[in-house]
Design brief:
Layout (H helix, E strand, L loop, with lengths): L5 E6 L3 H10 L4 E6 L2 H13 L3 E6 L5 H14 L1 E7 L10 H20 L7 E5 L2 H5 L4 H9 L19 H25 L3 E7 L5 H7 L4 H10 L8 H11 L11 E4 L3 H6 L3
Parallel strand pairs: 1-2, 1-4, 2-3, 4-5, 5-6, 6-7
Helix pairs in contact: 1-10, 3-4, 4-7, 6-7
Length: 273
Amino acid sequence: MRESDRVAVVTGLGGMGLAIARRVGPGLRLLLADVNAAALAEAAEMLRAEGQQVVEQVTDVGDATAVSVLAATAVELGRVDVVVHTAGLSPVQASAEAILRVDLLGAALVLDAFGTVVAPGGAGVFIASMAGTLLPQDLDLERRLATTPTATLLDLPELSGHAVANAGFAYGLAKRANQVRVRAASAGWGRRGARVNSISPGVIATPMGRAELDGPSGEFMQSMVDDSGTARLGSPDDIAAAVSFLVSPQASFITGADLLVDGGAVAALHFPS
């Protein structure tokens, strides 16, 4: 099979999504998806100018029909070898309800849809967050977040408006759900001969990351960065490099895992010097 018959899908064209598309797309057919038509068109044109074969599709990842149509488009383009889901909202951008719909339900919908079309030997990566890693462990809740059917996922009592008091908590809960849901889905992907993992970035120098640093939690986030082993913000290329590894043959024995790419921020928080 020619490389041009292989398909890479990237959802979300923010700073991380664009860097990832640049890294995984060359030589493949690159299917880009974002809810913002103008941003999507701009990213697609930029990547085409760099020599990539790009198809774009406006997609609301929180809409099951839209996600199913995206998966069908990917299959029409060729062999679906790479799926990277980065689409999401942060606490300074949206309400708790919107974050749960996009970050939690959206990831679950993409995980389901592409778990039925990814090719043998293919790989998926879902972007979670260190915020999910920092959430207090609740094994019973994690089991339900991981295994509740997607159609009823938002009906869990812990995800009700009463239980989720603010956007920050919604974000951490959604990202923890991403981590455990990917873990639970890895066996199903494996039966197709494919792998799926998540990445939990720390504070990354993207427009979203900068907005969070300027927001209510910014001082705490900056202190985590300052105290970390690397003492710097991450770059979109740091995440793209991790994605590139996880979808490559070098990671053929890695599936159902979450890779924390945070410059040591969580380690420093747990074990301050």
